[in-house]
Design a protein that fits this description.
Blueprint (H helix, E strand, L loop, with lengths): L4 E2 L2 E3 L27 H12 L1 E2 L1 H16 L3 H16 L12 H9 L1 E2 L4 E2 L2 H23 L10 H14 L7 H18 L6 E4 L10 E4 L2 E4 H22 L1
Antiparallel strand pairs: 1-2, 2-3, 4-5, 6-7, 7-8
Length: 246
Amino acid sequence: MSKSADSAGVWFWIPPASCTTERNTGWERGGTHETANSEQSDRMKDCCELTKFNPEQKQLLEDMLQTLVSGEDDETQVQKMSALMMSMILQSLKGLDRFDSPMIHFAAVLGIVEEENRLRRGDEYSYMLAGFMYCIRVLFVEHALPAATREEQTRDDIDRFLELRRGYLVVGSYSPCSFLIKMLGYEKTMSMQKINQPSITWSRSETKRPDGDILELHGKPLPIRRFKDAIHDMIQEAEDILWQDL
């Protein structure tokens, strides 16, 4: 596991389960130590070198990994994971680069279409970012107002939640969520400005191609002959049931 640190933060990586062998131990920033040339390691290389964690997050990361490796009970594992996530959510970015946040780094990676070597369009990315923000809000509320003690909570608890919300969950709060919310608004605007594309298109065969006529649903081709085959199969199955079971 890499433990290199500098003034900008700590570079750290948790190796996947399949990468914890003796010959595959991770990278050290600025060093010469490399893993074996496995496909999985190569795919993780950029993440290992670019994702940054502050000292607190690094310690929580190590605690969580130790909990998972030692096979502790589910409740303890959830507590360790929640502590790590809340450290990332309640991170101040005042005077820091936004990519000092692992959450923003993760959101940026979500916007990459690796297979096509391009960035996602607004309509492709906005729903992913919206889902990510929803999960963040759920974790935030559970941290500030735990469901297990909801009936015992007072006005002071609600005031504390509102104070935390102003500090970390709104635009202009110099937090990861501030940037993500602005990005989500931008992506939604881009999606609304895009000319609506038809969800279903029809392509007739003029050259008697093997697939015949094709119906496309959200760009996915569905040969009409497959619909016919499906109907025939359903009829055959119904006849078999009638003859064998009835």
